Hints:
Its EC number is 3.1.3.16. This protein has 207 residues and is an alpha+beta fold.
Amino acid sequence: GHHAVGGRELVPLAALIKEESRTERHAVTRSRICAREDGGVGGEVGEAETRRPLLRYGCAAQSKKGEDFFLLRTDCARPSTSSSSSTTSHPPTFAVFAVLDGHNGDAAAIYTRDNLLNHVLSAMPQGLSREEWLHSLPRALVAGFVKTDKEFQTKGQTSGTTATFAIIDGWTITVASVGDSRCILDAQGGAVSLLTVDHRLEENVEE
């Protein structure tokens, strides 16, 4: 079912995937490459740096077979419709964290690590405000996952991977996943929430 968090209704990822499969579109002609730019990408009017949370992060991994990978980016530039602040020296950015648990080889995990983010960004319409950007993220994530899967299948490889993908923009966290690599939110006050659902036959009726 749908869930409301912070006053926003969340749509199940499975429902978006079904809709995406029915209405698959051609990729937009321009893709926004996630990279820090010294100029040309503007911040939004009234978006003060002091209002953004301080992001601290760490990474620890123990890969027994060498099939597990992660993605960690904190400097991805978010496009803005604001022309008045296009010369700002500090363009608005978002962070990306991903865990990829490969199996039967590392090819799928490596390909996903190197391509999923760009596929998600290429599915985003251009010229969006921050609110529109956040609202469009779930559908773009679905499109990015589907495109990555389809492209990898054409390579004739037999490996696979889980993919848990989190985008943090200000105080908003958007998470999408396939497989059973969990994303857990440990919020201030002691509330612990699972932000993903395990895609395992023995635990998930829909799966």
